[in-house]
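Hello again, I could really use a second opinion on something today. My current little project is about how a certain protein chain folds up. You're getting the sequence in one-letter code plus the fold written as tokens. Here's the protein in full, and shout if anything looks odd to you:
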Amino acid sequence: MLTPRELEILRLWLRCESKAVASSELGISLGTINTHLIRIRAKYAAAGRPVADKAGLLIRALQDDLVSLAEL
């Protein structure tokens, strides 16, 4: 479902305090982070599993075994 890059960005963002911190750690713009997160949310919505915020993405990532509590 998610590309390797989307998965990388999602995992890092879930571990970081903010999108700005995640973008700094990856060396990409905040806009690029936002674009990836928009695409991730769109994929979940297309699958009938919409998410509205970071907490929702965290829940979906845990449900789909994309992240574990240990890595957070």
